[in-house]
Write a structure and sequence with these properties.
The complex is a heterodimer of chains A (388) and B (131).
Chain A (H helix, E strand, L loop, with lengths): L3 E8 L10 H16 L8 E5 L3 H4 L5 H9 L5 E4 L5 H15 L4 E8 L5 H10 L14 H16 L3 H15 L13 H6 L2 E3 L2 E2 L9 E9 H6 L6 E10 L14 H14 L8 E3 L5 H10 L30 H5 L3 H17 L13 E8 L4 E9 L2
Parallel strand pairs in A: 2-3, 2-4, 9-10
Antiparallel strand pairs in A: 1-7, 1-8, 4-7, 5-6, 8-11, 10-11
Chain B lengths: L9 H9 L4 E4 L5 E2 L15 E4 L4 E9 L12 E7 L4 E6 L15 E8 L6 E7 L1
Chain lengths: 388, 131
């Protein structure tokens, strides 16, 4: 099997930039990735582009050719949509295409423009990742959905708002030095606990912000990297995807995310590693409770034991297993259709040593990205390793 | 965004719930699901039969929503809850409790399911109330 290397990565600043068009955002991320990759755009065999609510936010369907054009590419271009896991799936399919030998160079990433909608319409747009008939009509918002999971988790395993406030505080601290992050300021546990409620038991600092931004990666075959003498020291060695029933109420457990269990099992198996081999991870912390559920599905903690990891210092920047050194969706921001790509951008830089937070993980060799859609009805997990 | 054509299968299910004739679909293995559905999401069986929804369920989890979507602007703050009715769960708006004091409510409370109007636009929604 051909090994897949990350030749280059690019992002836009994540944040509130409602006037910027989607095509401009993605073009910036893609050009940044090409500047990092030293790969000519003419060599690109395909564009895999993730986007969730562009049809609502920009009244723009058929975005893949538009984004190819914006990035200066003329190749088969396809949009992937799995809610907030859209870019994760776009990356996964790029990995599979390169592995198959069908392509040597694939650009993968995504874009989301959200702030031009305003909070109410953005909340409504995001809610369409849930089941329209049985959830959205019952008033389920996404903060509400994760709040339902959080309360069920507290009831089943214990833990509470203070544990979640530690997750928020940790991820805000990690974002301070990240030049791409939306919120580069620390938030204390007390500040998080005192913030106004969004959907109880989740309050303002339990939720990720509404973010505009884009991500792009240039993925190449090992043979292409060797033939062109590329500096591409990070390989994607495992990719997995899982699916669950769409509606939360149709799941066996309200407190577990088996789609991510399945995605992790496949990705670990492909890479020939287990959770104990992982040095750091970027996980889908759209809400603080989501980080807890993710770390349990990834096998870092048993069900019911992930809740105290941030509070105990295990997952902080200088802990045994740093989680979301970028700041996570929580503080770095969550342009939903770009997030799965941005996680792999961050991990690549962390492993290469050119990320502001690389100093926390100087010897890291194995990293995991966990990207989820909806209430984890879709999940994508990737394993990244420093190539030997 | 939703057209005027209605949603066959779901509309009949909601009307039955409103008439006190709530039901769910059951597969031969005893798994429950909600219509419209041709395949049991748990067993894969296509032999689904309508079974009466138990009159009383138990509150499994809830949230008080303070930041709504526009369709619920006038309803907020409101409570979204999931209740266990045995073979199926229902997600609905929990009424008959005070949203400002609801964090004191114990999970496991007995609830009944019905259909009422959304305050914002009068659309019919699944509502849970203390039994």
């Amino acid at each position: 099997m051909t090994e897949v290397r990350v030749a280059g990565v690019g992002l836009t600043k994540f944040g509130r930039q409602p006037e910027r068009t989607g095509r401009d955002l993605f073009a910036e991320a893609a050009l940044n990735a090409f500047a990092d990759a030293d790969v000519p755009r003419a060599d690109v065999d395909a564009l895999n582009y993730g986007n969730f609510i562009g049809s609502l936010a920009e009244n723009q369907g058929h975005q893949a050719p538009l984004m190819a054009e914006a990035a200066g590419l003329r190749c088969p271009a396809t949009r992937y949509e799995e809610a907030c896991a859209s870019a994760g799936v776009a990356v996964r399919e790029a990995v599979r295409t390169v592995r198959s030998g069908e392509a040597d160079v694939v650009v993968a990433g995504g874009m989301e423009r959200m702030n031009n909608l305003g909070t109410g319409d953005a909340t409504a747009g995001l809610s369409i990742a849930a089941d329209d008939l049985f959830e959205i009509r019952a008033g389920m918002t996404f903060p509400g959905a994760y709040a339902l999971m959080a309360r069920a988790y507290f009831d089943e395993y214990g833990g509470g708002r203070t544990d979640l406030a530690h997750v928020a505080s940790k991820n805000h601290a990690n974002a301070v030095d990240n030049e791409y992050a939306q919120y580069r300021r620390e938030v204390t546990v007390e500040e998080a606990l005192d913030a106004p409620p969004i959907a109880t038991p989740l309050h303002l600092f339990d939720a990720c912000p509404i973010t505009d931004g884009a991500s792009a990666l240039v993925l190449v075959s090992e043979a292409y990297a060797d033939a062109n003498d590329l500096d591409a020291p990070v390989a994607i060695t495992g990719t997995g995807q899982g699916t669950d029933n769409l509606a939360l109420g149709d799941r066996e457990h309200l407190t577990r995310t088996p789609a991510a269990d399945d995605a992790a099992a496949t990705a670990y198996d492909e890479a020939g590693i287990g959770p104990d081999d992982v040095d750091l991870a970027e996980v889908h912390d759209c809400f603080t409770i989501a980080e807890v559920l993710a770390t349990e599905s990834l096998g870092f903690f048993a069900p019911g034991e992930g809740i105290s990891a941030a509070r105990d210092g295990v997952t902080t920047a200088d802990g045994d297993l740093p989680i979301n050194l970028s700041g996570g969706l929580k503080a770095k921001g969550h342009p939903v259709g770009a997030t799965g790509g941005s996680q792999i951008v961050e991990l690549t830089r962390l492993l290469r040593g050119d990320h502001p937070n690389s100093r926390h993980v100087p010897d890291a060799e194995v990293a995991v990205a966990h990207n989820a859609g909806g209430t984890v009805a879709s999940a994508v997990v990737h394993v990244l390793e420093v190539a030997r | 965004m939703t057209g005027a054509a209605g949603d066959a299968g779901y509309d009949e299910w909601l009307a039955a719930l409103a008439d006190g004739q709530g039901f769910y679909l059951e597969s031969p293995a005893g798994h429950g699901s909600l219509p419209p559905r041709r395949v049991c999401p748990h067993s894969g069986s296509t032999e689904l039969t309508a079974e009466p929804l138990p009159e009383v369920g138990t509150l499994e989890t809830f949230t008080v929503v303070h930041v709504p979507t526009p369709r619920f602007d006038d309803d907020a703050p409101y409570v979204t809850a999931i209740a266990d009715f045995g073979a199926v769960r229902l997600t609905g708006v929990l009424r008959g409790v005070d949203p400002e004091a609801v964090d004191g409510i114990d999970l496991g409370m007995a609830v009944e399911a019905g259909v009422e109007e959304r305050e914002t636009d009068g659309k019919r929604i699944v509502v849970l109330r203390p039994a």
